[in-house]
Amino acid sequence: MYSSNKTRHGGDTRICMRKVARPLATDGRFMHVVFRSTKAVGKKDFRYGENYRKICAILDSVGRQTDVEVKKFRNVGNHFHFLIRSREANSLRQFLKLLPQKVALLISGAKKGSPKGRFFDLTAFTRIVEWGRDYANVIRYIIKNGLEELGHSKAEVREFFRILRTDPANQKFYIEDMRYRGEPVPRPVWE
């Protein structure tokens, strides 16, 4: 699923290596983004109480403010997955700067002028997603991650995707659901 270093950046991909510019997709391709925090446990969990709703509101406002389209969002408790797209590099940079900043301020309770240390473990992991099979695999990965976080076993998740792949009625429902939400329909993985 992961391609060369020219399309991904952040996370633990370049620890102890020289800095390089983050590759940004401004040509209509999507980017898979992951923010992770080991401090997001207990009351600081991203899904605890009102945190989930507030984070969704922050995501919506930052997306509109920076003109970044958020196609998929999965809150997994200690990390987020996004599938985003923008036509301008500065918009993507602003999104990747503002969103973790606002979430960290919300969850940690820090105020400007009284920092509480680093909240997110590493810089955001980003990867440019190619069209077709790569896009479908990222969507599946995000869905799989969310299902496992909800308590489904890996075997149950595999069975879910097997049924989705082999049953034409489920394939049709999956594609109709994507069209209803206005998402581009990738070439099916099962072909």
Could you characterize the architecture of this molecule?
The protein is α+β, with helices and mostly antiparallel strands. It has a single domain (8-180), classed as 2-Layer Sandwich (Alpha-Beta Plaits), CATH 3.30.70.1290. The protein is 41% helix and 15% strand. The chain is built from five helices and five strands. It has a five-stranded antiparallel β-sheet with strand order 1-5-2-4-3, sandwiched between helices. α1 packs antiparallel against α2 and α4 (154-166) crosses α5 (168-180). It is globular, with a radius of gyration of 17 Å. The chain starts with 7 loop residues before the first strand and ends in an 11-residue tail after the last helix. Residues 184-191 have low confidence and may be disordered.
Short synopsis of the structure:
The chain is α+β, with helices and mostly antiparallel strands and 191 residues long.
Order of helix and strand elements from N to C terminus:
EEHEEHEHHH
Number of domains: 1
Number of strands: 5
- pLDDT < 50 stretches: 184-191
Q: At the third CATH level, what is the topology name?
A: Alpha-Beta Plaits
Class in CATH?
A: Alpha Beta
The amount of helix comes to 40-55%
Summed over residues and divided by their number, the pLDDT gives a mean of: 75
Shape: globular
Largest sheet: 5 strands, antiparallel
Question: In terms of structural class, how would the helical and strand content be classed?
Answer: alpha+beta
**CATH architecture group name:** 2-Layer Sandwich
How do the strands line up in the largest sheet?
A: 1-5-2-4-3
CATH evolutionary superfamily: Transposase IS200-like
Q: How large, in whole angstroms, is the Cα Rg?
A: 17 Å
